[in-house]
Design a protein that fits this description.
The chain has about 475 residues and is an alpha/beta fold. It is built from 16 helices and 13 strands.
Length: about 475
């Protein structure tokens, strides 16, 4: 989002942005409180077991109750930021100092199909940053861009790396950032800060290839269904921290990637629960929505396209070695969908960006998720638009609850005073799942025969025997045949 904000300011002066947004806002009715809505399966609950109390009795609750209890009853946002555009624009202006410190480790992919490296940033206690360039700041720039590492980030020392694995039982959060972002993003740190302040949580951020000031070592960037690195990361974390219950959270495009990963893992998922925040879900619908209005096309899509083109130029020396990429075609793009047409389609073999969006969307994959998850969305989000939200799909799975607010923008939700509302339901949910729910006991679906993919048969005296073929609905079957590493 910080890259998005920077490009937005480069494209449009602050005065023009504020004047246009305020003028548009004056046409809207001042809304002092946002509406909160819940979407979930009505007739098929996921039963969760609570941590035993003093009596040792095992009580049960439902995922819906956990999510409702985690969500504040009201959504009072800043009255001066009274629509989604203003809330989103304020992410450009708002620069809170949320000091989260990281130590970085570089991972080499073990997959022969997705060779290359990526960076994981582990949250650590505050420390004095190195005053001089050296091994801890990758002075040789083997893995890091010439500008250096993001703020409050340095590499592990060999001694720190050897001491990193642990047998402790702290809950650990695996984080995926948004489009062209990284561990430095402020929306991400707003969630991490309250979780780590009491020392009860551990966390790490899986940076997408080429993001967060990392170099790439192949001619391929990440895409919207790039689940291979997070899969390897979770396997490594599971091995290094065998006793830690693992949780996941994704923001914006990272939420789409995380939902795809969770769906692909299905019953074998190593995470105990997850949060999907401001996900675009149906990428084809989201893209069409951006192109349908002047603001969507000339502000949001243009800004994100410029941001991705900047990321491309950062890695152009390496990416240009890919024989499928026409460098000048990428350089000539203006909008995000044009970038995907020029780079993602030829890289992965999609005939059109629409085919890529439909294949990479997580709306169907969500139906294959088999761990509890909470989705938090703003219905006035100008990027992850309301039309792309999986309202109907959420009523078909007992494993998820979607909370929407009528107001909040894209990863905004700014309250009066600067706090962000979405942090409350997100951290409350994670804390409840980690501390109040016995995650060693699998959740029980009340009516497993009603899970997505199960074909209902209504027997009766006036019915013929159900002898018809029973085709299989596979929510994660893709049009692009990519052999996922096991």
């Amino acid at each position: 989002m910080s890259e998005f904000a920077t490009e937005l300011l480069r494209t449009f002066p602050i005065s023009l942005l504020l004047s246009g947004l305020l003028a548009m806002g004056l046409l809207s009715r001042l809304r002092p409180s946002g509406r909160i809505s819940f979407f979930h399966a009505k007739d098929n609950k996921l039963l969760l077991t609570k941590v035993s109390g003093k009596t040792g009795a095992k009580e049960q609750t439902t995922l819906v109750d956990v999510c409702r209890d985690a969500t504040p009853e009201t959504c009072h946002l800043n009255p001066f930021l009274f629509n989604g555009h203003l809330q989103t624009a304020w992410t450009v202006m708002k620069h809170d100092n949320v000091p989260v410190y990281y130590k970085r480790k570089i991972f080499e992919s073990e997959s022969p199909m997705f060779t290359g490296h990526y960076a994981m940033d582990f949250v650590v206690k505050p420390y004095d940053m190195p005053l001089e360039e050296g091994e801890l700041t990758d002075q040789a720039r083997k893995y890091t861009q010439p500008e250096g590492l993001p703020p409050r980030t340095s590499f592990f020392t060999p001694e720190e790396l050897s001491a990193l694995p642990s047998d402790d039982t702290k809950p650990m959060l695996v984080v995926l950032h948004g489009l062209s972002g990284g561990s430095h993003e402020v929306y991400l740190r707003h969630v991490l800060a309250p979780l780590i302040e009491d020392g009860l949580w551990e966390a790490c951020v899986v940076n997408s290839r080429g993001c967060a000031q990392t170099k790439i070592s192949t001619g391929v960037l990440y895409n919207a269904r790039a689940t291979w690195d997070v899969r390897e990361a979770v396997k490594w974390i599971r091995k290094a921290f065998p006793n830690r219950p693992l949780f996941g959270i994704g923001f914006s495009l990272g939420a789409n990637i995380l939902a795809n990963y969770l769906g692909e893992e299905g019953d074998n998922c190593q995470l105990k629960a997850a949060v999907l925040c401001a996900s675009p879900w149906n990428l084809d619908v989201s893209s069409a929505y951006l192109q349908s209005t002047w603001l969507g096309r000339e502000v949001y899509s243009k800004t994100m396209g410029t941001s991705m083109k900047k990321l491309f130029e950062t890695h152009v020396e390496q990416v240009s070695t890919n024989p499928r990429i026409d460098v000048e075609a990428v350089r000539s793009i203006t909008y995000l969908h044009e970038f995907d047409r020029a780079l993602q389609c030829p890289t992965w073999g999609y005939p059109t960006e629409g085919a890529y969006y439909r294949d990479a969307s997580s709306t169907d994959a969500m139906l294959s998720i088999r761990i509890p998850f909470l989705s938090v969305q703003a219905e006035d989000d100008p990027i992850a638009c309301r039309d792309a939200l999986p309202f109907q799909e959420m009523t078909q799975t007992p494993y998820g609850v979607m909370v929407t607010t009528s107001w909040g923008g894209h990863l905004g939700w700014f309250e009066f005073g600067g706090n962000r509302w979405f942090v409350k339901p997100v951290t409350n949910f994670l804390n409840k799942m980690a501390r109040e729910i016995d995650t060693q006991v699998p959740g029980v679906v009340e009516h497993p025969e009603k899970l997505p993919g199960q074909i209902a048969s209504h027997a009766g005296l006036d019915k013929d025997p159900d002898m018809a073929p029973k085709p299989e609905f596979n929510p994660v079957r893709r049009k692009l045949d990519m052999k996922l590493p096991q």
